Amino acid sequence: MGMTLLELKTVAKELGMPAFTGGQMAKWLYTQHITSIDEMTNLSKANREKLKAAYTIGCKKHIDAQYSKDGTIKYLFPTDDGKFVESVYIPDDDRATLCVSSQVGCKMNCLFCQTGKQGFEGNLSATDILNQIYSLPEREKLTNIVFMGQGEPMDNYDNVLRTTRIMTADYAYAWSPKRITVSSIGVKNKLKRFLEESDCHVAISMHSPIPAERAEIMPAERGMSIADIVELLRNYDFSHQRRLSFEYIVFKGVNDSEHHAKEIIKLLKGLDCRINLIRFHTIPNVPLHGVDDKKMEEFRNYLTQHGVFTTIRASRGQDIFAACGLLSTAKKIADERA
After folding, report:
1. What is the Cα Rg of the chain in Å?
2. Cα(289)–Cα(281) distance, rounded to whole angstroms?
3. Dihedral sign, CA of 129, 130, 135, 141?
4. Which sequence spans correspond to the domains of the chain?
5. Phi, psi of 135 (to 5 degrees)
6. Which of 47, 56, 93, 292 has an alpha carbon 20 to 30 Å from 334's alpha carbon atom?
7. 3-class DSSP assignment, residue 149
8. What is the spatial distance between Cα 111 and Cα 128, in angstroms, rounded to a whole number?
9. How close are the terminal C-alpha atoms of the chain, in Å?
């Protein structure tokens, strides 16, 4: 799992099998979702034995699950190197979204994010990322994937890109890239590569339009400023099917004023995009607070009235700590090792 069709054909060739065996393996993996090589019944027993001697499928079932009263489910998956990662399944009428992780922990250390408090423990392989989908009990119900779980996707660029390419490839899931959204805080060079090498939707974590204030809550602003991010985005076309959005967690007294709204309007003028406003969920020892519904609506209405299409994202899974900014496996890792 996690190999491309070309790589599977190379495996077949190296083991003395016909090249078309690679295509058969791809179908078993990405269409049938097998869990053992023995299930590849159209391969000879001798060829299955050769494969088993050198490879495993690589899939791993979740080891824990938490169920929210709103239908959201948070899963804990083991990784190839003995760590753990969380992903969140979010059903919503005729839609079902999976929020996948790309790293164990995160280097970015945003003030408002629990994952950043965990520290960085490593990149997930394409196998680890894909396994969150492959081994999901509700896999067949999925309509959308968002890379908004633990970690910064652009900081694990190659494995994230490989995963999205397998998901959209004809030999694998054959998903439209418009069903996949990749979020980023903005990582210099990597974001540009993604814009040019992928057709998936893009979501940028803004959280403040004012550089100095953004740097206070998001240290990565010093590496690639929100102004530089927007300037880069202006070089690409988001007027058709590919969508550009900005994520904006609203903090009381920090980024919720009319001045901030005006700066957002000025920053995004002429850019085809939308704003998603997100409620803040309290994190221990973090001096930030959320705002009430009235303030959220006022902020949304002001932006919308001034030409910036803005929505308020429904908060899901808060009772199981699965909402935005709350994912962390540090304690679970410690518990498992104990």
Report:
1. 21
2. 8
3. positive
4. 5-54, 64-337
5. -100, 10
6. 56
7. coil
8. 27
9. 30
pLDDT above 60 for 203: yes
**3-class DSSP state for residue 119?**
coil
- Residue listed under structure tokens 């009990």: 137
pTM (whole model) above 0.85? yes
Cβ atoms < 10 Å from Cβ of 28: 19
Q: How far is Cα 106 from Cα 204, in angstroms, rounded to an integer?
A: 16
Dist. CA 265–CA 226, nearest whole Å? 13
What's the token pair of residue 79?
Answer: 């990784």
pLDDT tens track for 59-110: 999 999 999 999 999 999 999 999 999 999 999 999 999 999 999 999 999 9
User: Residue 193 CA to chain centroid, in angstroms?
Assistant: 17
Cβ neighbors of 269 (< 8 A, separation 6 or more) are: none
pLDDT in tens, 265-323: 999 999 999 999 999 988 888 999 999 999 999 999 999 999 999 999 988 888 887 67
Question: Which residue matches tokens 């995963």?
Answer: 163
Q: How far apart are CA 142 and CA 147, in angstroms?
A: 14
Short-list 213, 200, 192, 73, CA closest to 137: 73
Alpha carbon separation from 144 to 41, 98, 175 (Å, rounded): 31, 6, 9
- Supply the pLDDT for residue 279: 94
CA 90 to chain centre: 13
Go through the chain and tell me how many residues it has. 338
- The residues that bridge with 78 in the sheet, in sequence order, are 84
64-337, what's its fold?
Answer: TIM Barrel (3.20.20)
- How does DSSP classify residue 274? E
CATH topology of domain 5-54: DNA polymerase; domain 1 (1.10.150)
Query: 3-state class of 249 per DSSP?
Result: strand
Could you give the CA distance from residue 301 to residue 305 in angstroms, rounded to a whole number?
Answer: 6
Residues belonging to the active site: 86, 324
